């Protein structure tokens, strides 16, 4: 940390104040000598009468101080994702300013602890920056600390970061936020990545990121999103080290909205689906689920995609004897393994009475059309009472585990929201 002239003067003044008084002439000589040694420009020193609160004609330094801990002074090859970290002493207010070589300010903000400042986007590669931390104490006097550093050259190995959802998309109340990486993120780097992933919602709702695979991380709230919520998430991975010489290629930010609450509940025993909208039952639909040899999964699933018309082709999976190829209307995917809600006019006579499907939720053409029109991606469907339990990982199964289990997938220790 740079030592200011005032700090040097104060130290000298304290030493002088401890000397024995010999004579008026000696004291005058000492004062003159001290003034010449400790002032610049040849100007006369001030007296205690001119500036109350000064000791020996020297102003005490500000109470507060700051030390920049990273990047270290004059550092080279700094990742473009770098944050500025610092410590302060006796500071009641702290500000950070980062400027590029042209003197242009870089936008950023302090973290909640007030010890780390993160730019709002990745810095330029091969650029020199100057950071100034200003700490102010309860005396109202600021103390500045300045340092410079230079970012690394643009790396040749970069990892693309993408979001499944796009800006202004309206989703169901069960929709997880899904971020994907172009290559596997080693486990030792996942905490660093997760620290750069922030979520804000209005109204505020507790949630956590969970790594579903080395290339995908998802975020869900503790309970379903509140209907009508707005959700924003930001991933600041541009220039972030991701192991083996790889660095994040880009930042991303997404703003979405949660729609009305629409929930589907399927009871295998009754062979019916109950649909509620914002807490009120709006429709009851007869269904046919998977027969005993191909049972439907019990658990909470989500609508993953919607296909007005498609073809189910299972010959590769089931072989020429058991495979089939069938045109399907109003299909809504629930699992990676091929469970859908869809219209099945061939089983309308069994719907509400007998399970005859290959694991899908069969409904009539009319009910399939109604569901297709009224559902959104991210709407939950809970199936109960079948012979098979939903396998975690077979689709967006974020709601197939309880909260305590879900948070174990976070790369960072989970901290419950503080009670209001």
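Sequence proposed for the structure above (420 residues):
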């Amino acid at each position: 940390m740079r030592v200011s002239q005032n700090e040097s003067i104060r130290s000298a003044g304290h030493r002088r104040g401890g000397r024995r008084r010999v004579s008026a002439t000696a004291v005058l000589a000492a004062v003159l000598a001290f003034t010449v040694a400790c002032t610049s420009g040849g100007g006369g020193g001030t007296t205690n009468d001119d500036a109350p609160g000064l000791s020996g004609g020297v102003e005490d330094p500000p109470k507060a101080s700051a030390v920049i801990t990273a990047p270290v002074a004059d550092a080279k090859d700094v990742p473009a994702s770098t944050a500025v970290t610092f410590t302060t002493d006796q500071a009641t207010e702290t500000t950070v300013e980062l400027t590029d070589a042209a003197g242009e300010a870089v936008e950023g903000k302090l973290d909640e602890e007030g010890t780390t400042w993160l730019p709002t986007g990745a810095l330029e590669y091969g650029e020199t920056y100057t950071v100034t931390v200003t700490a102010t104490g309860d005396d109202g006097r600021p103390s500045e600390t300045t340092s410079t550093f230079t970012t690394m050259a643009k790396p040749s190995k970069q990892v693309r970061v993408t979001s499944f959802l796009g800006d202004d998309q309206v989703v169901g109340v069960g929709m997880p936020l899904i971020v994907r990486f172009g290559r596997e993120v080693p486990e030792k780097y996942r905490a660093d990545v997760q620290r750069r992933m922030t979520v804000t919602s209005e109204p505020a709702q507790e949630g956590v990121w969970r790594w579903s695979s080395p290339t995908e991380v998802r975020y869900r709230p503790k309970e379903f999103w509140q209907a009508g919520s707005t959700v924003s998430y930001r991933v600041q991975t541009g220039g972030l080290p991701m192991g083996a010489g790889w660095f994040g290629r880009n930042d991303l930010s997404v703003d979405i909205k949660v729609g009305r609450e629409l929930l589907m509940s399927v009871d295998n025993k009754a062979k019916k689906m109950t649909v509620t909208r914002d807490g009120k039952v709006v429709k009851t639909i007869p269904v046919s689920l998977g027969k005993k040899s191909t049972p439907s999964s019990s658990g909470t699933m989500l609508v993953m995609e919607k296909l007005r018309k498609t073809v189910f082709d299972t010959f590769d999976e089931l072989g020429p004897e058991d495979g089939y190829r069938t045109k399907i209307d109003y299909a809504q995917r629930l699992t990676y393994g091929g469970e859908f809600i869809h219209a099945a006019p061939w089983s309308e006579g069994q719907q509400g009475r007998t399970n005859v499907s290959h694991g899908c939720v069969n409904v009539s053409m009319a009910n399939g059309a109604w569901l297709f029109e009224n559902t959104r991606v991210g709407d939950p469907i809970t199936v109960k009472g079948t012979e098979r339990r939903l396998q975690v990982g077979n689709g967006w199964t974020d709601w197939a585990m309880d909260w305590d289990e879900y948070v174990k997938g976070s790369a960072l220790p989970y901290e419950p929201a503080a009670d209001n």
